[in-house]
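Justification of resources, computational component.

The compute hours requested in this renewal are based largely on the per-chain cost of generating structure records like the one below. Each record pairs the submitted sequence with a full structure-token output. That output is archived, and it is also reused by downstream analysis tasks.
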Amino acid sequence: VLTNRHVLFPPSGMLLASRRSDEPTRARIRTNIEVVIDFAYDNGLSRKMIYEIEDIPFVAQEADPLDVAVLRVRAAAIDESPPVPLAISSDAAPPQYVYVLGHPGPVPKVPEDIMAVFGSPDGRKRVSVGRVLEIVDATDGVLWHDASTVGGYSGGCVLEFGKTGVAALHYHGHPVHG
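The structure output for this chain reads:
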């Protein structure tokens, strides 16, 4: 699983992992909490597709501008076929229309504009659609899109319509500037 470093090490709130002292780009999930990935937590029929995190073979250091972590997972409870792994897009052309997958979590005092788009964020899987507004830095692969997101989309895939590869990793949003 590819996600953001700040999902494991948020700037505020509970740290989900601890770095290994012998290898600073590796980490392990804290032992006093249970962290699972539930690929089926959505508004569909009830089913299980829960994965446990076995290892964190790579997590970028805090000073690294690349906010990324790689998790090795194993199935813990599955009622159906496991999800097909996604590949990173090899398309050199930037995407035009994208969608972002996320699990927006509870927000205290949900503003009306958030409720209009997401309902009451509850951690269930959501899909947001939009278009790419600007390629900020083609060398580093940074792009801006207007798919509506809130907290809980971090580390989610940005996928291009009609393509099978992951175009980007969603890692930040701003309530005014996007």
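The chain is about 5% helix and 35% strand. The mean pLDDT is 87.
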